[in-house]
Protein backbone atom coordinates (compact mmCIF):
# COMPACT_ATOMS: atom_id res chain seq x y z
CA UNK A 1 0.00 0.00 0.00
CA UNK A 2 1.99 2.90 -1.27
CA UNK A 3 1.36 6.37 -0.07
CA UNK A 4 -0.60 8.33 -2.68
CA UNK A 5 -1.16 11.62 -0.92
CA UNK A 6 0.37 13.83 1.71
CA UNK A 7 -2.62 13.45 3.98
CA UNK A 8 -2.44 9.69 4.47
CA UNK A 9 0.59 8.53 6.44
CA UNK A 10 1.43 5.04 5.23
CA UNK A 11 5.16 5.04 5.03
CA UNK A 12 5.87 8.70 4.81
CA UNK A 13 7.49 10.97 7.34
CA UNK A 14 11.03 10.67 8.57
CA UNK A 15 12.40 7.17 7.99
CA UNK A 16 15.29 5.76 9.98
CA UNK A 17 16.54 2.27 9.14
CA UNK A 18 13.20 1.14 7.82
CA UNK A 19 10.77 2.19 10.58
CA UNK A 20 9.08 5.53 9.80
CA UNK A 21 7.74 7.81 12.47
CA UNK A 22 4.03 8.63 12.41
CA UNK A 23 3.70 11.94 10.55
CA UNK A 24 0.79 14.16 11.43
CA UNK A 25 -1.97 13.97 8.83
CA UNK A 26 -3.68 17.25 7.97
CA UNK A 27 -6.87 15.96 9.61
CA UNK A 28 -8.85 12.74 9.77
CA UNK A 29 -11.49 13.56 7.10
CA UNK A 30 -8.88 14.20 4.40
CA UNK A 31 -6.78 11.20 5.39
CA UNK A 32 -9.83 8.94 5.51
CA UNK A 33 -11.11 10.23 2.17
CA UNK A 34 -7.92 9.07 0.48
CA UNK A 35 -7.80 5.77 2.37
CA UNK A 36 -11.37 4.81 1.51
CA UNK A 37 -10.54 5.02 -2.19
CA UNK A 38 -8.12 2.09 -1.81
CA UNK A 39 -10.20 -0.95 -2.74
CA UNK A 40 -7.55 -3.46 -1.74
CA UNK A 41 -7.20 -1.89 1.69
CA UNK A 42 -10.95 -2.00 2.28
CA UNK A 43 -11.16 -5.63 1.19
CA UNK A 44 -8.29 -6.63 3.51
CA UNK A 45 -9.81 -4.78 6.44
CA UNK A 46 -13.31 -6.12 5.88
CA UNK A 47 -12.13 -9.73 5.72
CA UNK A 48 -9.85 -9.46 8.76
CA UNK A 49 -12.12 -7.49 11.09
CA UNK A 50 -15.19 -9.61 10.34
CA UNK A 51 -13.21 -12.79 10.98
CA UNK A 52 -11.79 -11.53 14.28
CA UNK A 53 -15.09 -10.15 15.58
CA UNK A 54 -16.92 -13.43 14.85
CA UNK A 55 -14.29 -15.45 16.72
CA UNK A 56 -14.39 -13.04 19.65
CA UNK A 57 -18.17 -13.28 19.92
CA UNK A 58 -17.96 -17.07 20.18
CA UNK A 59 -15.19 -16.93 22.79
CA UNK A 60 -17.03 -14.42 24.96
CA UNK A 61 -20.30 -16.39 24.73
CA UNK A 62 -18.59 -19.30 26.50
CA UNK A 63 -18.52 -17.37 29.79
CA UNK A 64 -21.76 -16.93 31.70
CA UNK A 65 -20.14 -14.33 33.95
CA UNK A 66 -18.65 -12.16 31.17
CA UNK A 67 -20.75 -9.14 32.16
CA UNK A 68 -19.58 -9.42 35.78
CA UNK A 69 -15.95 -9.82 34.68
CA UNK A 70 -16.33 -6.71 32.57
CA UNK A 71 -17.73 -4.77 35.52
CA UNK A 72 -14.91 -6.03 37.73
CA UNK A 73 -12.27 -4.97 35.19
CA UNK A 74 -13.72 -1.47 34.96
CA UNK A 75 -13.97 -1.15 38.74
CA UNK A 76 -10.38 -2.31 39.31
CA UNK A 77 -9.09 0.14 36.72
CA UNK A 78 -11.09 3.05 38.11
CA UNK A 79 -10.00 2.32 41.68
CA UNK A 80 -6.37 2.04 40.60
CA UNK A 81 -6.47 5.29 38.63
CA UNK A 82 -7.96 7.15 41.62
CA UNK A 83 -4.97 6.12 43.73
CA UNK A 84 -2.37 5.80 40.98
CA UNK A 85 0.26 7.83 42.83
CA UNK A 86 0.19 5.37 45.73
CA UNK A 87 0.37 2.29 43.49
CA UNK A 88 3.24 3.70 41.39
CA UNK A 89 5.36 4.34 44.48
CA UNK A 90 4.59 0.83 45.69
CA UNK A 91 5.55 -0.54 42.25
CA UNK A 92 8.85 1.33 42.25
CA UNK A 93 9.74 0.00 45.70
CA UNK A 94 8.93 -3.59 44.69
CA UNK A 95 10.91 -3.42 41.42
CA UNK A 96 13.90 -1.93 43.22
CA UNK A 97 13.77 -4.62 45.93
CA UNK A 98 13.80 -7.28 43.20
CA UNK A 99 16.99 -5.90 41.65
CA UNK A 100 15.58 -3.63 38.94
CA UNK A 101 16.08 0.08 38.36
CA UNK A 102 13.12 2.42 37.84
CA UNK A 103 13.26 5.57 35.70
CA UNK A 104 10.49 8.19 35.43
CA UNK A 105 9.84 9.84 32.05
CA UNK A 106 7.57 12.87 31.89
CA UNK A 107 7.35 12.85 28.09
CA UNK A 108 8.54 11.13 24.93
CA UNK A 109 11.80 13.07 24.71
CA UNK A 110 12.82 12.12 28.24
CA UNK A 111 11.89 8.46 27.72
CA UNK A 112 13.88 8.27 24.48
CA UNK A 113 16.89 9.90 26.12
CA UNK A 114 16.78 7.45 29.03
CA UNK A 115 16.57 4.37 26.80
CA UNK A 116 19.23 5.64 24.40
CA UNK A 117 21.65 6.34 27.25
CA UNK A 118 21.00 2.90 28.75
CA UNK A 119 21.74 1.15 25.45
CA UNK A 120 24.86 3.26 24.87
CA UNK A 121 26.13 2.32 28.32
CA UNK A 122 26.16 -1.34 27.28
CA UNK A 123 28.35 -0.56 24.25
CA UNK A 124 25.85 -2.31 21.95
CA UNK A 125 24.56 -0.91 18.66
CA UNK A 126 21.50 -3.08 18.15
CA UNK A 127 18.49 -4.19 20.19
CA UNK A 128 15.67 -6.68 19.73
CA UNK A 129 12.17 -5.53 20.55
CA UNK A 130 8.96 -7.22 21.55
CA UNK A 131 5.87 -5.45 20.23
CA UNK A 132 5.25 -2.30 22.28
CA UNK A 133 2.73 0.46 21.59
CA UNK A 134 4.38 2.74 24.15
CA UNK A 135 7.65 2.74 22.18
CA UNK A 136 5.69 3.43 18.99
CA UNK A 137 3.96 6.31 20.76
CA UNK A 138 7.27 7.96 21.67
CA UNK A 139 9.08 7.13 18.40
CA UNK A 140 11.80 5.13 20.15
CA UNK A 141 13.07 3.36 17.02
CA UNK A 142 13.75 6.68 15.35
CA UNK A 143 15.46 8.10 18.44
CA UNK A 144 17.71 5.05 18.67
CA UNK A 145 18.51 5.24 14.96
CA UNK A 146 19.62 8.86 15.30
CA UNK A 147 22.17 7.63 17.84
CA UNK A 148 23.37 4.85 15.56
CA UNK A 149 21.46 2.05 17.29
CA UNK A 150 19.41 -0.33 15.19
CA UNK A 151 16.16 -1.73 16.63
CA UNK A 152 14.83 -5.01 15.26
CA UNK A 153 11.11 -5.67 15.60
CA UNK A 154 10.45 -9.34 16.35
CA UNK A 155 6.66 -9.57 16.40
CA UNK A 156 5.68 -11.11 13.04
CA UNK A 157 3.30 -8.32 12.08
CA UNK A 158 5.71 -5.62 13.30
CA UNK A 159 8.48 -7.30 11.29
CA UNK A 160 6.31 -7.08 8.17
CA UNK A 161 5.67 -3.41 8.86
CA UNK A 162 9.35 -2.68 9.49
CA UNK A 163 10.63 -4.54 6.42
CA UNK A 164 7.99 -2.83 4.29
CA UNK A 165 9.03 0.66 5.48
CA UNK A 166 5.42 0.95 6.61
CA UNK A 167 3.39 1.92 9.66
CA UNK A 168 1.26 -0.23 11.98
CA UNK A 169 -2.47 0.13 11.36
CA UNK A 170 -4.05 -2.03 14.08
CA UNK A 171 -3.41 -2.57 17.78
CA UNK A 172 -3.42 -6.36 17.68
CA UNK A 173 -2.55 -7.02 14.01
CA UNK A 174 -0.30 -4.13 12.91
CA UNK A 175 -0.07 -5.47 9.33
CA UNK A 176 -3.81 -6.06 8.95
CA UNK A 177 -3.79 -3.86 5.84
CA UNK A 178 -1.43 -6.26 4.02
CA UNK A 179 -2.49 -9.48 2.30
CA UNK A 180 -0.39 -12.62 1.89
CA UNK A 181 0.86 -11.71 -1.56
CA UNK A 182 2.14 -8.36 -0.36
CA UNK A 183 3.86 -9.98 2.62
CA UNK A 184 5.60 -12.52 0.38
CA UNK A 185 6.89 -9.71 -1.85
CA UNK A 186 8.14 -7.73 1.16
CA UNK A 187 10.03 -10.76 2.49
CA UNK A 188 11.57 -11.49 -0.91
CA UNK A 189 12.64 -7.91 -1.55
CA UNK A 190 13.67 -6.65 1.90
CA UNK A 191 14.77 -9.45 4.22
CA UNK A 192 18.28 -9.65 2.82
CA UNK A 193 18.99 -6.00 3.65
CA UNK A 194 18.06 -6.64 7.30
CA UNK A 195 19.77 -10.00 7.84
CA UNK A 196 19.02 -13.53 6.72
CA UNK A 197 17.34 -13.43 3.27
CA UNK A 198 14.04 -15.07 2.43
CA UNK A 199 14.35 -18.64 1.10
CA UNK A 200 14.30 -19.25 -2.64
CA UNK A 201 10.89 -19.98 -4.08
CA UNK A 202 9.01 -18.46 -1.13
CA UNK A 203 5.23 -18.63 -1.68
CA UNK A 204 2.39 -16.85 0.09
CA UNK A 205 1.42 -19.89 2.18
CA UNK A 206 1.16 -18.78 5.83
CA UNK A 207 3.33 -21.66 7.05
CA UNK A 208 6.14 -20.74 4.66
CA UNK A 209 5.94 -17.05 5.54
CA UNK A 210 6.06 -17.85 9.27
CA UNK A 211 9.06 -20.15 8.78
CA UNK A 212 10.91 -17.48 6.78
CA UNK A 213 10.33 -14.99 9.61
CA UNK A 214 11.40 -17.54 12.22
CA UNK A 215 14.70 -18.24 10.47
CA UNK A 216 15.32 -14.53 9.88
CA UNK A 217 14.74 -13.64 13.54
CA UNK A 218 16.55 -16.55 15.15
CA UNK A 219 20.02 -15.16 14.48
CA UNK A 220 18.99 -11.81 15.96
CA UNK A 221 17.69 -13.42 19.15
CA UNK A 222 20.89 -15.39 19.62
CA UNK A 223 23.14 -12.39 18.96
CA UNK A 224 21.36 -9.55 20.77
CA UNK A 225 22.66 -8.38 24.15
CA UNK A 226 19.90 -5.81 24.76
CA UNK A 227 16.14 -6.33 24.64
CA UNK A 228 13.43 -3.66 24.72
CA UNK A 229 9.85 -4.44 25.71
CA UNK A 230 6.61 -2.96 26.84
CA UNK A 231 4.20 -4.65 29.24
CA UNK A 232 0.51 -5.40 29.30
CA UNK A 233 0.36 -5.13 33.09
CA UNK A 234 2.54 -4.20 36.07
CA UNK A 235 1.68 -5.68 39.47
CA UNK A 236 2.44 -3.13 42.17
CA UNK A 237 2.27 -5.74 44.93
CA UNK A 238 5.40 -7.59 43.73
CA UNK A 239 6.94 -5.42 41.01
CA UNK A 240 6.08 -8.07 38.40
CA UNK A 241 5.67 -7.16 34.72
CA UNK A 242 3.48 -9.20 32.37
CA UNK A 243 3.52 -9.64 28.60
CA UNK A 244 0.93 -11.76 26.80
CA UNK A 245 1.56 -12.84 23.20
CA UNK A 246 0.91 -15.57 20.67
CA UNK A 247 4.21 -16.26 18.92
CA UNK A 248 6.99 -16.73 21.46
CA UNK A 249 9.07 -13.85 20.18
CA UNK A 250 8.33 -11.95 23.37
CA UNK A 251 9.63 -14.80 25.49
CA UNK A 252 12.88 -14.77 23.47
CA UNK A 253 13.30 -10.99 23.88
CA UNK A 254 12.59 -11.15 27.60
CA UNK A 255 14.93 -14.02 28.50
CA UNK A 256 17.92 -14.16 26.11
CA UNK A 257 19.47 -10.64 26.25
CA UNK A 258 21.78 -9.65 29.08
CA UNK A 259 20.01 -6.30 29.54
CA UNK A 260 16.23 -5.77 29.43
CA UNK A 261 14.67 -2.30 29.18
CA UNK A 262 10.88 -2.08 29.55
CA UNK A 263 9.00 1.11 28.61
CA UNK A 264 5.50 1.10 30.08
CA UNK A 265 2.71 3.65 30.45
CA UNK A 266 1.89 4.40 34.08
CA UNK A 267 -1.75 3.40 33.57
CA UNK A 268 -0.77 -0.27 33.06
CA UNK A 269 -0.47 -0.70 36.83
CA UNK A 270 -2.72 -3.11 38.73
CA UNK A 271 -2.50 -3.32 42.53
CA UNK A 272 -2.39 -7.08 43.18
CA UNK A 273 -2.09 -10.54 41.61
CA UNK A 274 -5.76 -11.09 42.38
CA UNK A 275 -6.60 -8.08 40.20
CA UNK A 276 -4.40 -9.45 37.42
CA UNK A 277 -6.52 -12.61 37.28
CA UNK A 278 -9.52 -10.63 35.99
CA UNK A 279 -7.58 -9.11 33.10
CA UNK A 280 -5.97 -12.40 32.10
CA UNK A 281 -9.51 -13.62 31.45
CA UNK A 282 -10.74 -10.46 29.71
CA UNK A 283 -7.80 -9.72 27.43
CA UNK A 284 -7.28 -12.95 25.45
CA UNK A 285 -10.95 -13.46 24.65
CA UNK A 286 -11.39 -9.84 23.55
CA UNK A 287 -8.19 -9.65 21.50
CA UNK A 288 -7.30 -13.02 19.95
CA UNK A 289 -10.55 -14.85 20.83
CA UNK A 290 -8.58 -17.38 22.87
CA UNK A 291 -9.34 -18.74 26.32
CA UNK A 292 -5.78 -17.84 27.32
CA UNK A 293 -2.75 -16.51 25.51
CA UNK A 294 -0.27 -19.13 24.24
CA UNK A 295 2.57 -17.24 25.94
CA UNK A 296 2.17 -15.33 29.21
CA UNK A 297 5.58 -14.11 30.37
CA UNK A 298 6.12 -12.62 33.83
CA UNK A 299 9.32 -11.29 35.34
CA UNK A 300 10.18 -9.69 38.65
CA UNK A 301 13.50 -7.84 38.74
CA UNK A 302 16.54 -10.04 38.09
CA UNK A 303 17.55 -13.55 39.18
CA UNK A 304 21.08 -14.93 39.13
CA UNK A 305 21.57 -17.44 36.34
CA UNK A 306 18.08 -16.94 34.87
CA UNK A 307 17.22 -14.29 32.29
CA UNK A 308 18.72 -10.80 31.93
CA UNK A 309 21.34 -9.74 34.45
CA UNK A 310 20.23 -6.08 34.31
CA UNK A 311 16.62 -4.82 34.27
CA UNK A 312 15.43 -1.23 33.77
CA UNK A 313 11.81 -0.05 33.95
CA UNK A 314 10.95 3.27 32.33
CA UNK A 315 7.60 4.55 33.60
CA UNK A 316 6.05 6.78 30.93
CA UNK A 317 3.66 9.66 31.57
CA UNK A 318 3.53 11.51 28.21
CA UNK A 319 0.12 13.12 28.74
CA UNK A 320 -1.42 10.46 30.97
CA UNK A 321 -1.50 12.68 34.06
CA UNK A 322 -3.33 15.37 32.10
CA UNK A 323 -5.80 12.75 30.89
CA UNK A 324 -6.30 11.54 34.45
CA UNK A 325 -7.38 15.05 35.46
CA UNK A 326 -10.39 14.89 33.10
CA UNK A 327 -13.21 13.16 34.99
CA UNK A 328 -14.95 12.06 31.77
CA UNK A 329 -11.94 11.44 29.54
CA UNK A 330 -9.89 9.53 32.12
CA UNK A 331 -11.82 6.32 31.43
CA UNK A 332 -9.71 5.99 28.26
CA UNK A 333 -6.85 5.02 30.58
CA UNK A 334 -8.70 1.81 31.44
CA UNK A 335 -7.81 0.51 27.96
CA UNK A 336 -6.03 -2.87 27.94
CA UNK A 337 -5.21 -2.65 24.19
CA UNK A 338 -7.37 -5.59 23.11
CA UNK A 339 -8.48 -3.92 19.81
CA UNK A 340 -12.08 -5.20 20.08
CA UNK A 341 -13.38 -1.69 19.39
CA UNK A 342 -11.47 -1.50 16.10
CA UNK A 343 -12.92 -4.76 14.85
CA UNK A 344 -16.54 -3.61 15.19
CA UNK A 345 -16.11 0.03 14.13
CA UNK A 346 -17.65 0.85 10.72
CA UNK A 347 -15.35 3.87 10.37
CA UNK A 348 -12.14 1.94 11.06
CA UNK A 349 -13.25 -0.88 8.76
CA UNK A 350 -13.39 1.52 5.83
CA UNK A 351 -10.64 4.03 6.61
CA UNK A 352 -8.02 1.76 8.20
CA UNK A 353 -5.58 2.70 10.92
CA UNK A 354 -3.19 5.03 9.10
CA UNK A 355 -5.82 7.73 8.68
CA UNK A 356 -5.75 8.31 12.45
CA UNK A 357 -2.14 9.57 12.27
CA UNK A 358 -1.22 7.81 15.51
CA UNK A 359 -0.10 4.41 16.83
CA UNK A 360 -3.55 4.25 18.46
CA UNK A 361 -6.13 3.89 15.68
CA UNK A 362 -9.85 3.24 15.74
CA UNK A 363 -12.35 4.34 18.42
CA UNK A 364 -9.89 4.12 21.31
CA UNK A 365 -7.38 6.20 19.33
CA UNK A 366 -10.06 8.80 18.61
CA UNK A 367 -10.34 9.48 22.36
CA UNK A 368 -6.85 8.58 23.60
CA UNK A 369 -4.67 10.43 21.08
CA UNK A 370 -6.33 13.87 21.52
CA UNK A 371 -5.91 13.55 25.28
CA UNK A 372 -2.31 12.34 25.29
CA UNK A 373 -1.19 14.89 22.69
CA UNK A 374 -3.65 17.61 23.59
CA UNK A 375 -5.98 19.25 21.09
CA UNK A 376 -2.93 20.83 19.53
CA UNK A 377 -3.55 20.55 15.78
CA UNK A 378 -6.33 19.99 13.23
CA UNK A 379 -5.64 16.24 13.39
CA UNK A 380 -6.29 15.95 17.12
CA UNK A 381 -9.30 18.26 16.84
CA UNK A 382 -10.79 16.11 14.07
CA UNK A 383 -10.33 12.69 15.71
CA UNK A 384 -13.31 12.98 18.12
CA UNK A 385 -15.47 13.35 15.00
CA UNK A 386 -14.13 10.12 13.45
CA UNK A 387 -17.17 8.18 14.62
CA UNK A 388 -20.82 7.61 13.84
CA UNK A 389 -21.54 7.25 17.59
CA UNK A 390 -23.19 3.88 16.90
CA UNK A 391 -21.99 2.57 20.28
CA UNK A 392 -20.67 -0.79 19.04
CA UNK A 393 -17.27 -0.01 20.56
CA UNK A 394 -18.76 0.43 24.03
CA UNK A 395 -20.69 -2.83 23.76
CA UNK A 396 -17.53 -4.90 23.11
CA UNK A 397 -15.06 -3.08 25.36
CA UNK A 398 -13.93 -5.55 28.05
CA UNK A 399 -13.43 -2.74 30.59
CA UNK A 400 -16.62 -0.84 29.67
CA UNK A 401 -15.05 2.37 28.36
CA UNK A 402 -17.97 4.51 27.20
CA UNK A 403 -16.17 5.69 24.07
CA UNK A 404 -19.21 7.55 22.62
CA UNK A 405 -19.53 9.53 25.85
CA UNK A 406 -15.88 10.57 25.69
CA UNK A 407 -16.15 11.40 21.98
CA UNK A 408 -19.05 13.77 22.64
CA UNK A 409 -17.17 15.25 25.60
CA UNK A 410 -14.10 15.93 23.45
CA UNK A 411 -16.25 17.37 20.66
CA UNK A 412 -17.64 19.81 23.21
CA UNK A 413 -14.11 20.82 24.23
CA UNK A 414 -13.15 21.37 20.59
CA UNK A 415 -16.30 23.36 19.83
CA UNK A 416 -16.10 25.54 22.92
CA UNK A 417 -12.35 26.14 22.80
CA UNK A 418 -10.69 27.84 25.74
CA UNK A 419 -7.55 27.38 27.80
CA UNK A 420 -6.20 23.93 28.64
CA UNK A 421 -3.00 22.61 30.22
CA UNK A 422 -1.06 20.04 28.19
CA UNK A 423 2.03 18.56 29.90
CA UNK A 424 2.48 21.62 32.07
CA UNK A 425 2.02 24.11 29.21
CA UNK A 426 -1.09 26.26 29.02
CA UNK A 427 -2.58 26.26 25.53
CA UNK A 428 -5.55 28.11 24.09
CA UNK A 429 -7.84 26.13 21.79
CA UNK A 430 -9.44 28.56 19.39
CA UNK A 431 -12.66 27.24 17.84
CA UNK A 432 -12.38 26.95 14.06
CA UNK A 433 -14.84 28.73 11.80
CA UNK A 434 -16.68 25.49 11.18
CA UNK A 435 -17.33 25.20 14.90
CA UNK A 436 -18.65 28.76 15.03
CA UNK A 437 -21.00 27.88 12.16
CA UNK A 438 -22.06 24.74 14.00
CA UNK A 439 -22.88 26.73 17.13
CA UNK A 440 -24.93 29.18 15.07
CA UNK A 441 -26.85 26.28 13.53
CA UNK A 442 -27.54 24.81 16.97
CA UNK A 443 -28.81 28.18 18.23
CA UNK A 444 -31.13 28.39 15.23
CA UNK A 445 -32.40 24.87 15.89
CA UNK A 446 -33.02 25.73 19.54
CA UNK A 447 -35.06 28.78 18.53
CA UNK A 448 -37.10 26.68 16.09
CA UNK A 449 -37.90 24.03 18.67
CA UNK A 450 -38.91 26.76 21.13
CA UNK A 451 -41.39 28.12 18.54
CA UNK A 452 -43.53 25.18 17.36
CA UNK A 453 -45.66 27.22 14.98
CA UNK A 454 -42.58 28.43 13.10
CA UNK A 455 -41.19 24.88 13.06
CA UNK A 456 -44.45 23.52 11.62
CA UNK A 457 -44.54 26.13 8.87
CA UNK A 458 -40.89 25.48 8.01
CA UNK A 459 -41.45 21.73 7.78
CA UNK A 460 -44.41 22.17 5.43
CA UNK A 461 -42.47 24.54 3.18
CA UNK A 462 -39.58 22.08 2.97
CA UNK A 463 -41.90 19.17 2.14
CA UNK A 464 -43.47 21.12 -0.73
CA UNK A 465 -40.10 22.07 -2.21
CA UNK A 466 -38.45 18.63 -1.90
CA UNK A 467 -37.97 18.36 -5.69
CA UNK A 468 -35.88 21.53 -5.67
CA UNK A 469 -33.56 20.44 -2.87
CA UNK A 470 -29.85 20.10 -3.81
CA UNK A 471 -27.80 16.94 -3.37
CA UNK A 472 -25.11 19.02 -1.61
CA UNK A 473 -25.35 21.92 0.77
CA UNK A 474 -23.76 25.26 -0.17
CA UNK A 475 -21.27 27.28 1.86
CA UNK A 476 -20.22 25.88 5.25
CA UNK A 477 -22.71 23.04 4.82
CA UNK A 478 -20.52 21.62 2.07
CA UNK A 479 -18.15 20.19 4.70
CA UNK A 480 -21.01 17.98 5.88
CA UNK A 481 -22.22 16.77 2.49
CA UNK A 482 -18.70 16.16 1.17
CA UNK A 483 -18.63 12.96 3.20
CA UNK A 484 -22.35 12.21 3.64
CA UNK A 485 -25.46 11.93 1.51
CA UNK A 486 -28.02 14.64 2.16
CA UNK A 487 -31.13 12.89 3.52
CA UNK A 488 -34.20 13.06 1.33
CA UNK A 489 -37.06 15.16 2.69
CA UNK A 490 -39.94 12.79 3.59
CA UNK A 491 -43.32 13.06 1.90
CA UNK A 492 -44.87 14.37 5.12
CA UNK A 493 -43.56 15.54 8.45
CA UNK A 494 -43.80 13.48 11.60
CA UNK A 495 -46.21 16.05 12.98
CA UNK A 496 -48.56 15.64 10.00
CA UNK A 497 -48.22 11.84 10.11
CA UNK A 498 -49.14 11.85 13.79
CA UNK A 499 -52.16 14.05 13.20
CA UNK A 500 -53.33 11.85 10.32
CA UNK A 501 -52.86 8.49 12.03
CA UNK A 502 -53.61 9.38 15.67
CA UNK A 503 -56.19 12.09 15.12
CA UNK A 504 -54.35 14.62 17.30
CA UNK A 505 -52.58 17.91 16.68
CA UNK A 506 -49.74 17.90 19.21
TrEMBL record:
Per the UniProt entry, what species is this protein from, by scientific name?
Answer: Streptomyces albireticuli
Q: Which residues are in the 4Fe-4S ferredoxin-type domain?
A: 332-401
The record's Gene Ontology biological-process terms are: lactate metabolic process
| Gene Ontology MF, one | metal ion binding
Lactate utilization protein B C-terminal domain segment(s): 410-500
Q: Give the record's keywords alphabetically.
A: 4Fe-4S, Electron transport, Iron, Iron-sulfur, Metal-binding, Repeat, Transport
This protein's name: (4Fe-4S)-binding protein
Which PROSITE patterns does the annotation name? 4FE4S_FER_1
Q: Does the keyword 4Fe-4S apply?
A: yes
Domain (LUD): give its ranges. 90-302
